[in-house]
Design brief:
CATH class of the largest domain: Mainly Beta
CATH topology of the largest domain: Immunoglobulin-like
Number of helices: 1
Oligomer: single chain
CATH architecture of the largest domain: Sandwich
Strand content: over 45%
Length: 234
């Protein structure tokens, strides 16, 4: 091998190592991203909002804002522990985010009628590194959820009872495989609700049914209400 070819090979190898090091450096670099919040789109900084529900119209003061960060690429679990920040800080810097796209859930916490819930909520998309100096979230009165679950009064499972699917009726009706065991109903306004579950056989015939013993029940913003239904044979 000539001295020139040896020198060229060494140069190519060095360039490759530098490129690899550059990629590794970029992959391991993290960024701090700042978010700010505003309650109900009000003018100026405030941590006061109005709760509006069935027979309710009351001002509350939010002491904390709960912040949860998710990766858009994998939104099943938060990438960081939920952080509660003083509402009157009006901003929070999320530390050490890897390059990528994220969404952030914010909930302004208040206690009302013994329930401490994120009554005002917002969700915003952010990027790391940030595409702006600060990302602003406007928190508005949020919605609640109902986790519906079911069982049978004979203590048997779906298969032995001949139930292939259930129809969960709450704000709307949804068909779910019976063996799934539960179904989350989301985006519910602050109101009173009732839930009914019908068990169908493989041919779509209703053979079991039941109502939640708590009907009607109230669902508040930010709440996940657990409603269990025991089915009896028709």
């Amino acid at each position: 091998m000539t001295r020139f070819s040896m020198t060229l090979s060494a140069a190519v190898l060095a360039a490759g190592l530098l490129a690899a090091a550059g990629c590794d450096s970029e992959d391991t670099k993290t960024y701090d991203v700042t978010i700010t919040w505003n309650i109900a789109g009000g003018q100026g900084a405030t941590c006061v909002g109005t709760l509006n529900g069935p027979g309710v119209s009351e001002q509350v003061t939010f002491e904390k804002v709960a912040i949860t960060v998710y990766s858009i690429a994998d939104d099943e679990e938060p990438i960081q522990e939920i952080v509660e920040v003083n509402c009157n800080a009006y901003e929070y810097t999320i530390p050490r985010l890897r390059r990528g796209d994220y969404f952030v859930e914010l909930g302004a916490m208040a206690t009302f009628e013994g329930e401490r819930l994120p009554f005002y909520q917002a969700e915003i998309d952010i990027s790391a590194p940030a595409k702006s100096d600060k990302y602003e979230a406007v928190l508005l009165q949020g919605k609640g959820k109902v986790l519906v679950s079911w069982s049978f009064d004979n203590n048997k499972m779906c298969g032995p009872n001949g139930v292939a699917e259930v129809v969960v009726s709450l704000a709307a009706s949804e068909k779910i495989p019976c063996e799934q065991g539960e179904f989350l109903v989301e985006d519910l306004y602050w109101s009173d609700y009732s839930v009914n579950v019908v068990g169908n056989d493989a041919g779509g015939n209703a053979i079991w049914t039941g109502d939640c013993a708590d009907n009607p029940f109230e669902v508040m913003p930010g709440q996940v209400y657990e409603a269990h239904v025991v089915l009896g044979e028709i």
